[in-house]
Recover the amino acids of this structure.
């Protein structure tokens, strides 16, 4: 199957130059962009690119849902063949129409994702991403089918109960499991409680996406499943954007499909190569209906264009390192507590099975409240860990095993962190 890998950096740069102009030309057709692009000269696009305002999700939320198509889309409603829900745990969700050509390019990006991990027609994939208008599950599945890979379309726990999913893993013997890392840990906890030896199951590879994967969470997943974990990264406004492949060198960016920039959060100026900044993405091909132009993804990343060893066709691509989401922190009594750091601190304790974190106001004082499931009742160890790590003493409530998972299963993305201060 022709996955259209660019053969050199020169070819890759040529594709970007040509398709960036197409992206701007398409955006100019949308009423939303008329005032944003009125002074941009296409013949000087390389010089003027950074004058194009960065686009945020909050700006799109200002468009009334009933007018979104007329304001932002550049093809008639009759050209839409499906709608994709924008992910995220906060704010009003957005729904983007996709044309047949958009969908074709999206699936092509996901076909490369399967090549990245070395999957073949001999594999079978158990897909536990949520099934519905959020596109990630069906894109992985449709791309797998195109490559002759077997698929089990389970969806998340709301689509197929978690106990049934474990039974299917036992009966159907999939070799690859796909889902959010949090749900993978929930299945592992449930398997432990049910006496199912997930560590020695047929699953040998795991694909996770839709939430940041820290080294601590990766290690916990690999230990629980006895499988190799691959981290993938994408967004509804694009498709599959970057992924980890065999060799685990980092996240390879499909730079011929998406033009990526890393900018300073405050100034919007380019961040030096290799330094962390805010990710800005421009789809180069699947922009036939919704012309996202310099889209702020809400992620903090670094990008490197260093040459990779030419071991694979994707070696020509730059490498991305995902640090965290820009909105992923609590401020408690003047202390910034990054969600990923809090998760790592808790998951380093082997007795911690699962948790949910909340912050609320108590008479003018911020309170960090942790709801924790543990293998043994030792809440004081959690209190001491958080106090030493963040200089904040939390409230801790112990929960029965499986309590948190029931709440998580009802959500597209796990509501692990909740700020109740309004």
């Amino acid at each position: 199957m022709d996955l259209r890998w660019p053969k050199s950096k020169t070819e890759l740069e040529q594709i970007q130059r040509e398709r960036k102009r197409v992206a701007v030309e398409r955006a100019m057709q949308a009423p939303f962009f008329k005032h944003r692009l009125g002074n941009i000269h296409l013949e000087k696009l390389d010089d003027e690119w950074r004058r194009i305002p960065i686009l945020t999700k909050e700006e799109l939320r200002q468009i009334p849902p009933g007018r979104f198509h007329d304001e932002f889309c550049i093809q008639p409603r009759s050209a839409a063949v499906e709608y994709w829900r924008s992910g995220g745990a906060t704010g009003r969700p957005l729904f983007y129409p996709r044309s047949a050509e958009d969908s074709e390019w999206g699936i092509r990006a996901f076909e490369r994702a399967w090549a990245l991990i070395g999957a073949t027609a001999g594999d079978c994939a158990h897909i536990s991403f949520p099934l519905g208008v959020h596109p990630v599950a069906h894109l992985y599945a449709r791309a797998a089918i195109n490559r002759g890979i077997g698929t089990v379309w389970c969806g998340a726990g709301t689509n197929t109960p978690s106990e049934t999913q474990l039974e299917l893993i036992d009966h159907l013997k999939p070799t690859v499991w796909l889902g959010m890392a949090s749900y993978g840990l929930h299945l592992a906890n449930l398997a432990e409680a049910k006496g199912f030896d997930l560590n020695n199951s047929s699953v040998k590879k795991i694909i996770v996406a839709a939430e940041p994967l820290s080294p601590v969470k990766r290690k916990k997943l690999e230990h629980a499943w006895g499988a190799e974990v691959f981290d993938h990264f994408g967004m509804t406004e694009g498709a599959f954007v970057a992924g980890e492949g065999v060799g685990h060198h980092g996240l390879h960016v499909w730079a011929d499909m998406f033009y990526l920039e890393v900018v300073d959060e405050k100034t919007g100026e380019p961040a030096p190569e290799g330094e962390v900044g805010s990710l800005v993405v421009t789809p180069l091909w699947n922009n036939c209906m919704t012309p996202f132009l310099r889209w702020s993804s809400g992620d903090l990343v670094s990008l490197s264009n260093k040459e990779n060893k030419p071991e694979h066709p994707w070696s020509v691509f730059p490498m991305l390192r995902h640090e965290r989401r820009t909105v992923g922190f609590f401020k408690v009594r003047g202390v910034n507590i990054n969600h990923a750091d809090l998760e790592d601190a808790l998951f380093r304790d082997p007795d911690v099975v699962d948790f949910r974190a909340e912050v609320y106001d108590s008479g003018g004082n911020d309170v960090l409240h942790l709801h924790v499931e543990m293998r043994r009742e030792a809440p004081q160890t959690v209190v001491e860990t958080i106090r030493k790590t963040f200089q904040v003493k939390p409230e801790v409530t112990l929960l029965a095993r499986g309590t948190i998972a029931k709440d998580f299963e009802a959500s597209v993305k796990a509501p692990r962190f909740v700020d109740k201060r309004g």
In short: The chain has a mean pLDDT of 90. The CA atoms of residues 380 and 396 lie 8 Å apart. The domain at 1-326 is CATH 3.40.50.12780 (Rossmann fold). The first strand starts at residue 80 and ends at 85.
